[in-house]
Amino acid sequence: QKEVEQNSGPLSVPEGAIASLNCTYSDRGSQSFFWYRQYSGKSPELIMFIYSNGDKEDGRFTAQLNKASQYVSLLIRDSQPSDSATYLCAPGGSYIPTFGRGTSLIVHP
Amino acid sequence: ETGVTQTPRHLVMGMTNKKSLKCEQHLGHNAMYWYKQSAKKPLELMFVYSLEERVENNSVPSRFSPECPNSSHLFLHLHTLQPEDSALYLCASSQDLSRAGVRYGYTFGSGTRLTVV
Q1: Which residues of B touch A9 (CB under 8 A)?
Q2: Closest CA to B73 of B27, B19, B113
Q3: Confidence (pLDDT) at A3
Q4: A16: closest CA of chain B, how far (Å)
Q5: What whole-number distance in Å separates Cα of residue A30 and Cα of residue A107?
Q6: What distances in angstroms separate CA B40 from CA A45, A106, B1, B60, B104, one per listed residue?
Q7: Given a cut of 90, is residue B70 above it in pLDDT?
Q8: Is A97 exposed, middle or buried (0-12, 13-18, 19+ CB in 10 A)?
Q9: At A80, is the secondary structure helix, strand, or coil?
Q10: Nearest C-alpha of chain B: how many angstroms from A101?
Q11: CB contact under 8 A, A36 and B105
């Protein structure tokens, strides 16, 4: 299985700031990644999929994949209190991905 | 109903009880999954079904018994559980196995919060 590592946090940022969430992975063959968001007591929700080096932007979210350094990140611009959740990364390319532990993000007013 | 529906939302059971968790997906997907999520632990894959055939059994104790009668329904039968089995049990589906890992990922149900007393 493809392993990923995430800092469990919590990462605390003020409202309006950029939140940066990171995920490192061990399998050099990983070509793509998912980012899921999980609110407390709720199920994970897919928010981003990235499959190439560089950046992918979707609204306030930007996913970055750096295959040389084996990390994938999620940037959230203009963070809102409603962004407070746990963010999980998971490698693509397999029907049995290994999810990271998730990073807890707290956006305070 | 749309998406992936799980029932019950909450379940409290004794160690000698037998209960079942139900999952139903209305997305026309061909693959279904059971995941376990314990406090402060990563999501743990338990079982994978593709077109009603089990393709993965991730070293799960026999007190958990899955059943997939058709591609829309998935059950998890529980018996003689232990307190450490208390967790959030999540069902998920994907279009098919090959596309689970590409672009579309999973759609998760809301989960069943299980407490074993």
Answers
A1: none
A2: B27
A3: 79
A4: 28
A5: 31
A6: 18, 16, 31, 19, 26
A7: yes
A8: buried
A9: coil
A10: 4
A11: yes
